[in-house]
Predict the structure.
Amino acid sequence: MYRPAARLAEIEPFHVVELLTRARQLEAEGRDIIHMEVGEPDFPTPDPIAEAAIDAIRQGHTRYTETLGLPALREAISRFYGERYGVDVPAGRIAVTNGASGALNLAFACLAESGSQWLLADPGYPCNRHILRTFSGRPQNIPVGPESNFQPTPDQVRQYWQPETAGLLVASPANPTGTLLSLDDTRALANVCREKNGHFLVDEIYHGLTYPEGDAPTDTPPDVPSACAAGDDIWIINSFSKYFQMTGWRLGWMVIPEAYVRDVEKLAQNLTLCPSTPAQYGALAAFLPETIAILESRRLEFRHRRDFLAPALERIGFRIIARPEGAFYLYCDCSALTDDSFTLARRLLEETGVAATPGVDFGFNAPEKHIRFAYTTNIERLAEAADRLGRYFNRQGQSGAIGA
Ligand SMILES: Cc1ncc(COP(=O)(O)O)c(C=O)c1O
């Protein structure tokens, strides 16, 4: 008997996975594929983190920890907020989780009533709407575009808020656009949520990987405030995956409004018991000055790649419509080159060996016009990709096939 829960009908796969499967097939046939579809850093986890985890395993730290994480790690994260952002976030409000994914699951398990509606930016990170559905909430997309730097505005939040709306989730830097919310914008959004008596969640998973306009390329972290500074009633989602380059370790954290800490703890006791123990011991080394020095040099490298790739794509005919001040993505308008970005992504893979993610993976807001390139590969490979794409569109132009 096959009878999955009805909610499964609403859970969609990641379309890019289909592309990735095809990319792997082509690689198995000997083709050279340039991966620009992947949403994870290409750098290995910094050595001090890896060494700390290996030592911990050797010393026998392989059993469950406290449900909300090692007290020393919660303290280290709390100190990080003080040192980097100048905000006081008590360790008692920090839950260490299984990645930002674990944090989002716990947050919605804690907050989403059956049928409650949640406002999400479109385009946005697709798993959000599926996590919500898993907990019987309802996603309500807010279409966002270049006029608001692909972030929802307070007016839009008011406009889309319904009696059944329970809250708003934003991301800064955002996926797929890499755009930031200023602290003033965050405060304004928080105020609308307060007015409406709703929850406000900010996903800061790409925090640290920021290259704000006007900021000189140096290896000291730029001054990009955390939404923590906008109020202690805001739920902050974060992770060791991206800035700390620990995607496979499955470790993240969440800053929880005080009143909900015990609720999240009860849920985590039942849903996950605790985050990975070796990963937590590794993460204790994530905030050491020697680790931060490695991460900052890599941040500069990401910035360098962005500054190389954006004009290279524009020369080919892609339009960079979002201000990509963070993460490692360029979200492009490709409507001058095609009216179907999904087909384009497939053709680019087959004919040029360049893999990118079509807009359809990020929502319903003109996905056919957009495509996301991740600069998670080195500059030589990015140059090669730009070269291949340039030649492809030249051939298309000569044969009059552009737009087909
Ligand atoms: C915006 C956003 N939030 C959350 C996640 C989940 O990340 P993780 O569970 O690896 O921390 C991702 C992953 O790509 C993401 O892009």
In short: The longest strand covers residues 165-171.
